[in-house]
Amino acid sequence: MKKAEIIIDKYFLTGSVDKRIYGSFIEHLRRAVYGGIYQEGLASSDEQGFRKDTLELVKELEVPIVRYPGGNFVSGFHWEDSVGPKALRPARTDLAWRVIETNQFGLNEFADWSKKAGSEMMMAVNLGTRGPEDAKNLLEYCNFEGGTYYSDLRKSHGYAKPHDIKLWCLGNEMDGKWQMGHKTAGEYGRIASETARMMKWLDPEIETVACGSSSLTMPTFGDWEYQVLDECYDEVDYLSLHQYYGNRSDDTADFLACSKGMDDFISGVVSICDAVKAKKHGGKNINLSFDEWNVWYHSNEQDKEIKAWDQAPHQLEDVYNFEDALLVGSMLITMLRHADRVKVACLAQLVNVIAPIMTSDTGAWRQTIFYPYMHASVYGKGTVLMTQIKAPVYESRTYGTVSTLDCVCIWDEEAEAVTIFAVNKDLEDDAEVSCDFRQFEGYQVEEHIVLTHNDMKAVNTEAAPDTVSPIHSEASKLENGIFSTVFGKHSWNVVRLVKKHETVK
Predict the structure, then answer these.
(1) Is 479 in the active site?
(2) SS3 at position 176
């Protein structure tokens, strides 16, 4: 058995966890909306057509915020099409995904669904085929109290109170040639600046997210970020990052090392943000919104066969296996280790489309990636401790030297609890792990949750929904201030330690 050590100090802090780092994403994309969160006429749907089985699983995830309505879809979206009486809403061609959008589920339905799900709304505006004026009008419809054309229009649609949306994405992946109305960095930076300026004139309490590169592999990455921020630094609050990973070469060790690439990505973008800050003698930090991230590759080949101009066909429906769950856990750990600057993140997406939740006409079930996402969202509250790891390493084909142990510790001072999230990436050996916990006097091990499976390709299905599911371990102990445990080979681990108070008699 290999040995490893976790080193923490309660006074060495990375940053507080913004709950929005556990956000998700719903796009008008195939079965994410229609058949995912909304399906009229289904026995499991409520009076508004919202699937109750999906809602229950979303509540289990404790999703704090959901980005909507895209994604690529938003760059051709006329929000006016999606409000008012359903019978009067026009069906439109969606060039992003080559489908017919019926607009039977729209802005106000999403607001209602979000309330039922216990989530805030993160709204994206169309800066592809539209511009600042339309974005301002949408904000007025959503957030203005009343007495103006668009706020009164909302009231006439049955919504007397504003939706009060606080976080707004200024377009989506505007550097990509697949994007409707795609722009150069200078063009986008200017329109983002003017859009944010107008929107904040109307509602000074909102925050805005400028589009970073569509991925780390874009040829304009880095230069795009710098030019965009050079134009809109004073008007925006966050810069977006998007990144997906896959195991196309069937090299599990290299696949699990992708989180190191994600770490480098975040560090690089932070450096660019701070370079622009220095140039402008800025008084604020631009923080990061990692508002698209996940594993995505399983469905790529089958999606090439999809017929165009259908309504809500099956597409991007990755069936996730156990090794995908391990990487998702490592990606969550990576973002938490950057909690000082990564304040918002959205697992893309929430239901059916590259998602932790899958549905059919007869039910909904948890994919393998559901569990690390749920554990992080439920237990990852508080302040991230600067977590150092001493562990064996291995050589990955793409990312070089990688630690076998991925780990982050979070201290919830108010609840008097410390949570350890850890992935043992070693495919052959368990890890015997220790940590000096003497600064946390009176703490005891509350529970140790493990997600593991002998088959790295094991999946959950509707017929076998619990093939990959968490179990409890008795391996974790805290004696004389020293924490010790065993993290089994290829496993996701959640260890919760809670302070115990003596009962006064």
Answers:
(1) no
(2) coil
Its pTM stands at: 0.95
Task: State pLDDT tens for residues 146-184.
Answer: 999 999 999 999 999 999 999 999 999 999 999 999 999
What's the DSSP call for residue 69? S
For domain 18-295+332-379, which architecture applies? Alpha-Beta Barrel (3.20)
Question: Which stretches of the chain score pLDDT less than 50?
Answer: none
Per-domain residue ranges of the chain? 2-10+385-499, 18-295+332-379
Q: In sequence order, what are the beta bridge partners of 60?
A: none
Among residues 450, 459, 460, 418, the alpha carbon closest in space to that of 437 is found at 418
292 is known as an active-site residue: yes
The conformational region for residue 305 under phi > 0 = left, psi -120 to 50 = alpha, else beta, is: alpha
What does the alpha-carbon distance between residue 153 and residue 235 come to, in Å, rounded to a whole number? 28
> Could you tell me which residues come within 8 angstroms of residue 92 by beta carbon, excluding any fewer than 6 positions away?
78, 81, 100, 101, 103
Short-list 353, 329, 303, 320, CA closest to 461: 320
CA gap 469, 340 in Å, rounded = 31
- The residue behind tokens 């630690």 is 403
How far is it, in rounded angstroms, from Cα 281 to Cα 448? Answer: 47
Identify the H or E element spanning 7. Answer: strand 2-7
Catalytic residue among 225, 292, 317, 323: 292
Q: How far apart are CA 170 and CA 193, in angstroms?
A: 9
- Of 173, 225, 317, 323, the catalytic one is 173
- Give the CATH H-level superfamily of domain 2-10+385-499: Golgi alpha-mannosidase II (2.60.40.1180)
